[in-house]
Amino acid sequence: MMTEIDKEYVRTIIKGDKRPDGRGFEEFRNLKIEQGYVKNAEGSAMVTLGKTKILVGVKMSIGEPYPDSPDKGVLMVNAELGPVASPDFESGPPRPQAVELARVVDRGVRESKSINMEKLCIEKGEKVWLVAVDIHILNDYGNLIDAAGIGAIAAILDAKIPGIKEDGTPDIENRKEKLDVTQIPITCTIYKITGKMVLDPDLKEESAVDGRLTVTTIDGSICAMQKGGVCGFTPEEVYKAIDISIKKGNEIRKKYFK
Amino acid sequence: MSEEKLIKNDIRPDGRKLDEMREMEARAGVIDRADGSGYFRLGNTIAVAAVYGPKELHPKHLVDPVKAYVKCRYNMAPFSTSDRIRPGPNRRSTEISKVIKDALSSVIFLKEYPETSIEIFIEILQADASTRCVGLNAASIALADAGIPMKDLVTSCAAGKVEGTMILDVAGIEDCEGEVDLPIAYVPRKNEIYLLQMDGIINKDELKKGIEMAIKGCKVIYEKQKEALKNRYAKKGVDKK
After folding, report:
1. What would the pLDDT profile of A240-249 be if each residue is shown by its tens digit?
2. Does the beta-carbon distance from B195 to A227 stay under 8 Å?
3. Taking CB atoms and an 8 Å limit, are B198 and A228 in contact across chains?
4. How close does chain B come to A231, measured CA to CA in Å?
5. Does A225 sit within 8 Å of B203, measured CB to CB?
6. How large is the ipTM?
7. What is the spatial distance between Cα A204 and Cα A198, in angstroms, rounded to a whole number?
8. What is the pLDDT of residues A77-100, one digit of tens each?
């Protein structure tokens, strides 16, 4: 639990153009991505961002396509904020925070047209691959959105399509091709604390956040955005936030995904 | 894919210009039981909103000793779209309820009503794109009608990208075929954006154009909302005689 004193402490330091841990405003904490963490998953990635820990797994199964896209696979993104990760999380059905997290990550992957969904068609109108991306939060130490977005694309890049057994079920012993991934969307959220824009707040800083704007980018273009929290952004602040996200997205893409 | 273009010579399928909104209607005081209520129609999208409170908050553990707690529910009527929607909350409506709640919480003077709840219920009766915007516009009217002190009315509308062209207030076939949807909520007095969502591939210049267009649309809506509130209370004066 963060106290009012913690919040005031963060606000005072940020007002003085510094951060409690000495980072620059546009500097991320240390990021580590370990792919292939779970052998039973078609793809997985453990993301460590400072002390925040998220494990993302991809499982694939065979099912029916949607009637309006009979020759395309189906993507599903889900997030679990279980009680293991924070005293603020409770078990039970997903709360609005988890739903929003999953849907923001989902839109980033879906709208960037990152996965070639046509290659996931087995039999047009009958059988396609269903790709389930599950975001499992293990330790909430701030900025879950960006860590989850990066984890999702890392797990998707790691995923291999199972073979198909004679009875028509997936054969995970014989995984073959990788998923056809054409774009790498990177989620970068701009947080406003006392009117200043900072990236990647840790837990203490996050308690002082007034509002946020998540921008998911692919090479120079934007593919999804979401504003959250109660403080507003002027149009100029939105444009500035986009520039920061594009720059940071390119940086992360270059360092971790090339 | 048909070769036929949706937008020809800057004229859209329903005859509108690129930066033209659909016609709209706003009313205040449409639900008698509520402490405040509003109705907003934008073309074929219709929303009503009711506000109850400030009132006692249940469950008790949510009580905040320094400010009011805002509850918000966005709900689509099962018959509001071409395919029936299963009643009850789903992931989409949960997310929309949350972003609308955030947008409205930022303008309400919550500290005026500690330990209470302010409850906002939005019902989409008929849907033809921009349901979250129309719902938000109705909810703003309802909050003002309930006499809840606010910094300003929240206004909301959407821009979009169809066939590479930025347009204001996407509707009908543009909504199905369009590449980008960009709903925003804007507060004219503060020149700030309180809700912004976007999906689809877009560059910065297009986004800027979309936001500028949507802000222009919001300013039109703002006048309609104020007019609705004035009409409501002008009428009340007459009723009392």
Report:
1. 999 999 999 9
2. yes
3. no
4. 6
5. no
6. 0.87
7. 13
8. 999 898 999 988 988 888 999 999
Of B153, B126, B149, B152, the closest CA to residue B141 belongs to B153
Mean pLDDT of B16-21: 96
- The arithmetic mean of pLDDT across residues A119-136, rounded, is 96
Which domains are present in chain A? 28-256 (3.30.230.70)
Q: Which domains does chain B have, with CATH numbers?
A: 24-240 (3.30.230.70)
What per-residue confidence (pLDDT) applies to B234?
84
- Taking the Cβ of residue A110 and every Cβ of chain B, the question of whether any pair is shorter than 8 Å is answered with yes
- Read off the tokens for B35: 């402490």
Would the pLDDT of B197 be above 60? yes
pTM, whole model, 2 decimals? 0.91
Is B102 within 8 Å of A99 when comparing Cβ atoms?
Answer: no
